[in-house]
Design brief:
It is built from six helices and 13 strands. It has about 270 residues and is of the alpha/beta class.
């Protein structure tokens, strides 16, 4: 009868540890159980433990328990933990590059607004400039197409203290977009980027490609890109693009400059 160690000669497998990830505001994760993907926007403590609140690209929020290995980043499991307190000697930076002042309360919302043409544009603006905009009290709203701009302005009534900044897609000389945004008055500023879709405003390197594919006219651009890159559906592609943006350094200068000009415009004081 063999009385030795029954595991002798066998290598014991070590359990693979799951890394911890500080749930900084704006960090994008996927709930492993439901597949919900969103950015961290807050926390709540309940009788059942700590929960994180995630916001998806459509602005919907849900709470998820912060349990071990409960979330995914790029398909790999992680354990979300609350961010550690930062030393005053090492001020954090917001995604836009500005100094993040911890504990600073957001201003009461201004009368002015920034309107963004598409849902993906709005999500990227919030991803990079969200902290700064909340501090300044600036509300970002989706415009849902420049064809609606005239009626929205008539309803809003821009004026002193009620400025409107508009971020438009494919704003190039001679385009329909340029005609729709001309001569809107001193209390409205329109800026934009030259790209067919705001995905192109994300640097190819950030999403792990050499360049954005050229898609023939008449074909849906996102669908064509996802086909050429093997990204699955446009929804799958958007998740890749959104997750790739961690700061302004991941964006092309055209988009950065356009948004910065709008922020300056809606936050500068009106002359008496």
């Amino acid at each position: 009868m063999y009385a030795g160690d029954i595991l002798a000669g066998h290598t014991r497998r070590k359990k693979k540890s799951v890394p911890e990830l500080e749930a900084e505001r704006g960090v994008v994760v996927e709930d492993a159980a439901s597949g919900w993907c969103g950015a961290v926007v807050g926390f709540e403590k309940t009788y059942d433990g700590d929960f994180v609140r995630l916001e998806d690209a459509q602005g919907r929020t849900r709470l998820f328990a912060m349990r071990p290995a409960a979330f995914l980043v790029d398909g790999a499991p992680v354990t979300l933990v609350k961010p550690k307190a930062r030393s005053a000697a090492q001020p954090a930076r917001s995604a836009s590059g500005s100094t993040r002042v911890e504990g600073l309360r957001a201003r009461v919302a201004r009368g002015s607004r920034i309107w963004v043409e598409g849902v993906h544009d709005a999500a990227l603006v919030e991803r990079v400039w969200g902290h700064d905009l909340r501090v300044e009290g600036v509300v970002v709203e989706q415009l849902e197409g420049l064809d609606n701009l005239g009626s929205r302005l008539a309803e809003f009534g821009p004026g002193p203290g009620r400025r409107v900044g508009v971020l438009a897609d494919h704003l190039v000389t001679g385009s329909k977009e340029e005609r729709l945004t001309a001569n809107l008055g001193p209390h409205v500023m329109v800026t934009g980027h030259p790209y067919i879709d705001v995905w192109q405003a994300v640097k190819p390197k950030a999403v792990g490609i050499d360049a954005w594919p050229v898609i023939p006219r008449g074909e849906d651009w996102k669908t064509g890109v996802c086909r050429e890159l093997g990204w699955g559906t446009p929804q799958d592609g958007w998740r890749r693009v959104y997750d790739a943006v961690n700061s302004f350094r991941d964006l092309e200068s055209h988009l950065i400059g356009a948004v910065e000009r709008l922020v300056d415009f809606v936050t500068e004081p009106d002359e008496g």
